[in-house]
Amino acid sequence: MSYGTSVALQAAIYQHLLADPALAALVGADIYDAVPSGLVPSLYVSLGPETVMPAGDKTAEGARHRFTVSVVSDGGGFLDAKAVAVAVSDALHGAKPALQRGTVVQMRFLKATAKRVGAGAKRRVDLRFEALVEDD
């Protein structure tokens, strides 16, 4: 197993989402690794937690990266958040972004959870993906 591709994968996912025209039409550049302090946009995308498991074999080192991408909305309903979540899913499912280290062999959507946050109008959609990455 190798955790060595984790930084490269996160950077590639971030750049891939920033470059996606459908997602940009919905949130612009409001895609974050860490949500900024101060004034936060009413609708944004945030990279979240990751779990990594070994996936190497006799010919190559590799790992399965299960990671979350969250869509957060201050809107009164789920419609805007779900529209952005669809764009995130479309951008990442099947994507093979170039990495600084390693190669994405497969990326797939696993599940999504849409929920209210607290008692207010905030909504959140957490999308879970899995990337199989070979470390070269």
Automatic annotation (TrEMBL):
Q: Which domain of life is it from?
A: Bacteria
Query: Which Pfam family, giving just one, matches this sequence?
Result: Tail_completion_gp17
Q: What is this protein called?
A: Gene transfer agent protein
Please give the organism: Tropicimonas isoalkanivorans
Query: Which lineage do the record's taxonomy fields give for this organism?
Result: Bacteria, Pseudomonadati, Pseudomonadota, Alphaproteobacteria, Rhodobacterales
